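Field log, afternoon session.

UNIT: design team B
ACTIVITY: writing a sequence onto a fixed backbone
BACKBONE:
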């Protein structure tokens, strides 16, 4: 897992490759993927929510939206190419004559897609799907930016910051100067609850998933301002249910005034949890801020797994459930 995380900056640079596609008469975009293959859709939707004039729907289900038709750009994402729900969704999209573009490394999905031009990216094989995130997200982003006339990201600048983060948080760096190690120590023996806002919402969800899968730690996530209208009500003093909660707030390094106000207001009750940790984004551009915070989360989940003396790579419960659902 550490070797895969070390490749993160290079993967980002290699994966950010646009493909020419026909966007004529496209009225909506649907992205289908499960687990590690589906988070790219969440990131794409958050990144482009205020930039595109057509809706983006993330479908984490075997059944696709009823409105999908020949005017739908349909991204189908499966690292292995064998995800049961994703293949079924692909078959439905084919029957509805959607404009299908795929990202897959191999498997049944690749076999079913007869036109190779409909595969916009093939990730390298033998990577944990969740560790292959750049390959499952950035080809879509680059392609949409190019074909919808949006400004392209300078991925080389982003890579530079990602490399700096890796250097500062490498295993040999002592905990005093290692942000990911310090976070892992803080999260040990807690239930992490990850909060974020606006475009960082899927980043918080990624942290939650990596803590689940790598650290084998129960964690959950929520986002501002929504959590201020429900979840905070449970954060009252002496509530035994929150005594083990570690609230991790992921925030933009230059938050908007209203966002800053929402976060600060919530801290008046969040202080009743076991601890509050704040993680600020790094960089100036939205993509850099997103990817750099994801990398810190990936490293934190790895170091927490080490502290818990658990192997981060196997996902035994997930595989057990997959076997049972395929019987």
């Amino acid at each position: 897992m550490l070797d895969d995380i070390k490749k993160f900056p290079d993967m980002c640079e290699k994966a950010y490759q646009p493909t020419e596609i026909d966007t004529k008469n496209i009225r909506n975009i649907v992205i289908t993927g499960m687990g590690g293959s589906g988070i790219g859709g969440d990131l794409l939707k958050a990144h482009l929510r205020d930039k595109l004039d057509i809706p983006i729907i993330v479908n984490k289900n075997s059944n696709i939206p009823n409105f999908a038709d020949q005017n739908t750009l349909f991204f189908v994402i499966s690292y292995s190419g064998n995800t049961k729900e994703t293949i079924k969704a692909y078959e439905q999209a084919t029957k509805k004559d959607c404009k299908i573009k795929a990202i897959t490394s191999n498997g049944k999905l690749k076999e079913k897609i007869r036109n190779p031009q409909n595969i916009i990216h093939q990730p390298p094989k033998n990577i944990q799907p969740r560790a292959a995130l750049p390959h499952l997200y950035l080809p879509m982003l680059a392609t949409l930016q190019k074909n919808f006339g949006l400004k392209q990201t300078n991925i080389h600048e982003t890579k530079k910051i990602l490399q700096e983060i890796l250097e500062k948080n490498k295993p040999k760096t002592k905990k005093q100067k290692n942000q990911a190690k310090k976070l892992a120590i803080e999260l040990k023996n807690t239930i992490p609850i990850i909060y974020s806002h606006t475009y960082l919402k899927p980043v918080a969800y990624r942290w939650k998933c990596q803590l689940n899968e790598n650290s084998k730690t129960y964690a959950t996530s929520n986002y501002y301002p929504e959590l201020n209208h429900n979840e905070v009500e449970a954060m009252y003093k002496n509530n035994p249910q929150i005594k083990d909660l570690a609230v991790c707030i992921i925030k933009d390094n230059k938050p908007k005034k209203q966002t800053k106000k929402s976060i600060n207001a919530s801290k008046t009750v969040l202080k009743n949890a076991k601890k509050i940790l704040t993680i600020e984004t790094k960089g100036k551009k939205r993509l850099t801020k997103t990817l750099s915070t994801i990398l810190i989360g990936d490293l934190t989940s790895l170091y927490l797994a080490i502290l818990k003396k658990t192997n981060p790579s196997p996902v035994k419960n997930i595989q057990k459930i997959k076997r049972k659902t395929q019987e």
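LOG NOTE: Residues 17-147 form a domain with the Rossmann fold fold (CATH 3.40.50.10490).
NEXT ACTIVITY: expression trials, pending approval
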